[in-house]
Amino acid sequence: MTIHAPAGIDWAMLTDEAQRHLQALLRCNTTNPPGNEYLAAAYLREQLQAAGIEPDLIEPSPGRVSLWARLPGTGAQRPLLLVSHTDVVPVERDQWTRDPFGGELHDGFIYGRGAVDMKDMLALELTLFLHFAQRAQETGQRLSRDLILLAVADEEDGGAHGMKWIVENRPELVDAEYALNEGGGMGMDIGGQRVYLCELAQKGSIRVTLRARGQPGHAAIPHADQAVARLARAISRVTSAPLPLHVIPTARRFIQILVATQRQPQRGMLAQVVNPLLSDTILARLPDQRVADGLRAMLHNTATPTLLHAGTALNVIPGEATVKLDCRIIPGQTAETLVGELRRHIGDPAVAVEPEPMSPGYEMRPTPLFDAIQAAIAKEEPNAVVAPYLFPAVSDSRFLAPLGVTAYGFVPHQPEPGVPPVQALAHGHDERVSVANLGFGLRVLYDVIQTISE
Asked: What is the DSSP letter of 453?
């Protein structure tokens, strides 16, 4: 792993501090539901108070606590918001080789639920927040903009007790020019080129129910008009081929940067993935199908079947069968366009397509914050590139975007040999992050904050 150590900062000491914070946060069982984010908030408050900083605790419902703290700058520029969430998804304990809430260190890796989603970023943000506070106290040197630390509850279950509540009830707390949050920052090796993803856009989300009806009857006498069979055909049609191609500027720029780094024949193949006549064929032939899956998600609305329901008894043909689709929508597309695409794919008017309310996506432009991220990565890895990225999932940034906050997803993370990518570790078994990557993240984020706040 590349080591870069700017003069005047004891990076080994700061990395040790970030490790200590991360291990303590992982030992706070903030599984959502029920959340219990007050455990993490109490730890954060203790650390900030020890540095002479009094944070604000936000508790819209019992135990669902978010924490907010401000480090004043000179006021020459508007604030920078450091965002993270403290809740984590549930675990299957019998599938873990380590205690998911032990914060254990083994072979250079810290294990625990939330290690990469996203208590690692919280530990980095807390460490740097305290570093800049200490520097201001000791030298009087302040950043040009206020630094705001915001650790929110309930990101994993919609944000009603976290960011959504804050934006609706205390929007002054997130009045900032820029925000750094999850959704990008991971490095990928594509055709021998190291590419770091910086999330500038995010897909919208919507849940859709497919409802098939047919004739009920005795299971001993099957017939052709069965709801389950009709639904099965609909699911097969939705999942067997992508929905139509939609190329937004962020995705186009991502592919252009990727193409410029590749050799033939992959260079020529990748250049054509935005061609609706060739895209599906090319993506199916790419040697790295994880890359192909990521590109496919950036170029299409997606509909993934997750929850199935039919029948009440084994010997009864049900008259109705349903499936829930988790759908992610390209920015600029609507619920109506998605429903139309699904209906055309299904091709059966007897299958109803029932959308729920949609959470829209967004697309942001490159700004000086993107330039600062590029410069920070170049200092660590001169041969790497940073590419704008359309995040196919959702984060709390979706609540900030409508307020005019430029929110980028960027949690710096170098790929490591033999270690699953961040996308596989998040929500997975034996979630972990290396101490070396904590050090990498500290150095990169320090440079980003320093550069954007000069």
From this structure: T
Q: How far apart are CA 365 and CA 110, in angstroms?
A: 35
* Residues making up the chain, counted from first to last: 454
Burial label for 115, CB within 10 Å (0-12, 13-18, 19+), is buried
Amino acid at 128: L
The structural architecture, per CATH, of the domain 204-244+300-360 is: 2-Layer Sandwich (3.30)
Hey, which bits of 167-314 come out as E strands?
178-181, 187-190, 193-202, 204-213, 217-218, 302-310
Domain formed by 11-191+361-452, architecture: 3-Layer(aba) Sandwich (3.40)
Kindly report the average pLDDT of the chain as a whole number: 96
**How many Å apart are CA 174 and CA 281, to the nearest integer?**
44
Domain boundaries, the chain: 11-191+361-452, 204-244+300-360, 248-296
- What's residue 8's pLDDT? 81
Interior angle at CA 258, CA 369 and CA 427, nearest 5: 70
User: Which tokens hold the place of 402?
Assistant: 């409508």
Quick: pLDDT tens for 206-238: 999 999 999 999 999 999 999 999 999 999 999
Over residues 326-342, the pLDDT tens digits come to 999 999 999 999 999 99
Residue 60 and residue 117 in contact, taking contact as beta carbons nearer than 8 Å: no
